[in-house]
């Protein structure tokens, strides 16, 4: 999977916006101004950082060499995944969906209603 393919998938989420974090050379994707994905390169490989529960993060890291703690984000809640690794595209899409939903669920009711409406 490429940066542009995963970015397109992220940007199709309701309310998704993107900006560039120039210091990190990363594209940040947010909903209601809350980060849910960050697309960047890690060790010269395309990658995405996504929010997960600590339990899911630990499980993914134990089972997949291409999933590891995010260097610049809270390591308990954020995992980075190489896009060109062994993880199937369907699993990458699932992780994007889960990260987005986790952020949406944490938003105030009024913000969630705006996304739905």
Topology of this protein?
Blueprint lengths: L2 H9 L4 E6 L4 E6 L2 E9 L2 E7 L2 H10 L3 E3 L8 E5 L6 H18 L2 H8 L1
Protein name: MmcQ/YjbR family DNA-binding protein
Pfam families: YjbR
Keywords: DNA-binding
Features of the shown structure:
about 120 residues, alpha+beta, Aspartate Aminotransferase, domain 1, 6-stranded antiparallel β-sheet, 4 helices, 6 strands, about 30% strand, globular
Walk me through what this model shows:
- This is MmcQ/YjbR family DNA-binding protein.
- With 117 residues, the chain is of the alpha+beta class.
- It has one domain (3-108): Alpha-Beta Complex (Aspartate Aminotransferase, domain 1).
- The chain has helices spanning 3-11, 54-63, 89-106, 109-116, and strands spanning 16-21, 26-31, 34-42, 45-51, 67-69, 78-82.
- Strand 5 (67-69) and strand 6 (78-82) form a beta hairpin.
- The longest helix is centred in the C-terminal third of the chain and has 18 residues, at 89-106.
CATH topology: Aspartate Aminotransferase, domain 1
Overall pLDDT confidence = 95
Shape-level CATH architecture: Alpha-Beta Complex
- Give helix and strand order, one letter per element, not per position: HEEEEHEEHH
User: What is the 3D form?
Assistant: globular
Strand order of the largest sheet: 1-2-3-4-6-5
CATH top level?
Alpha Beta
Quickly count the domains.
1
Radius of gyration: 14 Å
Strand content: 25-35%
Count of helix runs? 4
Content-based structural category:
alpha+beta
Describe the sheet with the most strands: 6 strands, antiparallel
Contiguous uncertain segments of 5+ residues: none
Distance between the termini: 31 Å
Give the number of DSSP strands.
6
What fraction, in percent, of the residue positions are helical?
A: 25-40%
């Amino acid at each position: 999977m490429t940066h542009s393919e995963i970015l397109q998938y992220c940007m199709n989420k309701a309310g998704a916006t993107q900006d560039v974090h120039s210091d990190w050379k990363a594209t940040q994707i947010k909903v209601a101004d809350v980060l849910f994905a960050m697309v960047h390169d890690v060790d010269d490989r395309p990658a995405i950082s996504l929010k997960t529960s600590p339990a899911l993060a630990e499980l993914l890291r134990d089972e997949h060499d291409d999933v590891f703690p995010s260097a610049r984000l809270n390591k308990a809640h954020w995992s980075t995944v190489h896009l060109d690794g062994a993880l199937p595209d369907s699993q990458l899409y699932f992780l994007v969906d889960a990260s987005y939903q986790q952020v949406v669920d944490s938003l105030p009711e009024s913000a969630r209603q705006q996304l739905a409406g």
